[in-house]
Amino acid sequence: MAETKKAKKKPESVWTRPARAKREQPSLGREQIVDAALELLDAEGLDGLSMRRLGTRLNSGATSVYWHVTNKDELLELALDRVMGEVRVPAPDGGGWRDAVAGYARSLRTMIHRHPWTVPLFGVQPMIGPNATRVLEEVIVAFDGAGLTGMDLENAMSLIADYVIGAAGSEASWQNTRDAATGEDWLETLAPYLAEIADRHPRLTAHIRDVWARETADVLEQRFDYGLSCVLAGIEAHRPR
C-alpha cells in the first residue's frame, strides 16, 4: 500500500491575515493587548505569558483578545515587532557603512537587554511587521558603500544579527540569573575550587582570576566591541573587489 503523503501546513502570520470589518471590532484594541502582553513578557519572560493570564490582566473576556489574535504565536509576533520599534539604524553618512552597521548592532543589543524574551523568537517567523521591515530596510541602506548585493548582502546582514542575538542573549541571561553578582563576588565564592584545580589547569585558573577581577560591565562591553569589530572586519575582507 502506498504511503499517504502528509499535507504540508501552510505558514501563517498575523500580518497576512485579512483585516476584519471595523464595525465588528470590540472596545478593547490591539495596542492595549500588546501593551499588556509586553508587561507580562518583560516581568516574567515567555513562560509568564498565556492567553488566560492576558485576559485576566486586561479584565476582558477571551472573545475580545481572540478577535485580534487567534493564538499565542500571533501575539508574540505583535510583541516582537513592537519592541523592534526601539531599534535605530544610523544613516551611512560620514563614517561609512561600518559605523552605520555598528550603530545598528549596538541598538539591537540594547533592545535585547531590555527584552531578553525576544531571543528565542528570532528566526521563528519572517520579520514582516511594520517596525521590523523599517529596520531591515534601513540596515540595507546602512550597507550602502560595502558593494554587497543578493546573497552577499543577505549573508552579511544575517551574520550581524546572529552575532548580536547570540552575544546579547548570553549577556542578558548572565545578568538576569546572577542577581547582579560581580566577578569579584564569584571569585570569592570560587576561590577554594580554583585553588583545588590550579595544578591541573594553571593557565585557566590564572585567566579566570585576571578577567573576573575586572568590572563585569567593562568586560562585557569590551568583549562585545571586540567581537563586533571582528565580524565587521570579516565582512570587509569578503567584499567583492
TrEMBL record:
Keywords annotated in UniProt: DNA-binding, Repressor, Transcription, Transcription regulation
Residue range(s) of DNA binding per entry: 50-69
InterPro entries in alphabetical order: DNA-bd_HTH_TetR-type_CS (IPR023772), Homeodomain-like_sf (IPR009057), HTH-type_TetR-like_transc_reg (IPR050109), HTH_TetR (IPR001647), Repressor_TetR_C (IPR004111), Tet_transcr_reg_TetR (IPR003012), Tet_transcr_reg_TetR-rel_C_sf (IPR036271)
PROSITE patterns: HTH_TETR_1 (PS01081), HTH_TETR_2 (PS50977)
HTH tetR-type domain mapped to chain residues: 27-87
KW Transcription (keyword) present: yes
Coiled coil start-end: none
Superkingdom of origin organism: Bacteria
Keyword Repressor appears in the UniProt entry: yes
UniProt-recorded name of the protein: TetR/AcrR family transcriptional regulator
Species of provenance: Actinomadura napierensis
Organism ancestry: Bacteria, Bacillati, Actinomycetota, Actinomycetes, Streptosporangiales
